[in-house]
Amino acid sequence: MQINSSCGLCGGVKITHYHQDKLRHYWQCECCQLVFVDESERLTPQQEKVIYDSHQNDLGDEGYRRFLSRVADPILARTSPPAIGLDFGCGPGPLLAHMLTEAGHKMSVYDLYYANDPEVLTGQYDFISCTEVIEHIAQPKSILSQLFSLLKPGAPLVLMTKLVIDKTRFATWHYKNDLTHISFFSRKTFAYVAQIYGSDIEFVGNDVIILTKPEVLVAPSEEIL
């Protein structure tokens, strides 16, 4: 199979075949190590929306609250209320924003399908959460650049996404079987992102990544623009 896409993170064109299953082919950028699905095998926005609509995000679900606490707890440990936060990609049930509001923060939410308010993407924030979102993005460089531009100096971007370990485990990885998941990050990929933006990076548990914007602003490397 021939690939049609360059890397959606760094723009690299040195792409190698990483894995194939019954559903799709997966490719890896030699520069930033992002694993991704070629545009020819991605769903349409309409097909994605059908899948997202099937998700159950009940604000009263205690199990879902515990799941999101893996993001909420690091945010609360790094911020003092009332901080101004953005939950980017909040989905149809913005429970994380609700949890952080309960803790005294002032929250805005954005979601392409469920809370598409461009006005919130013009503010400046003390923190931004991005939970189970980045793996759905075909062009993560544009989203990361946008999110970093919305952060105040010294503010954290807290992401949650499952991480690629190696080819052997990828072959049996349930996470890749969700057809809306098209960009897969590893620790090396996030280290690349941190280097580009001059940010500190911290991994919390198995799937939470904290990128802290530098206090002294530096221009992102042209490699990712």
Automatic annotation (TrEMBL):
Keywords: Methyltransferase, Transferase. InterPro entries: SAM-dependent_MTases_sf. The keyword Methyltransferase applies. The lineage of its organism: Bacteria, Pseudomonadati, Pseudomonadota, Gammaproteobacteria, Alteromonadales. This is Methyltransferase. It comes from Pseudoalteromonas amylolytica. SUPFAM superfamilies: S-adenosyl-L-methionine-dependent methyltransferases. It comes from the Bacteria. Pfam families: Methyltransf_23 (PF13489). One of its GO terms (molecular function) is methyltransferase activity.
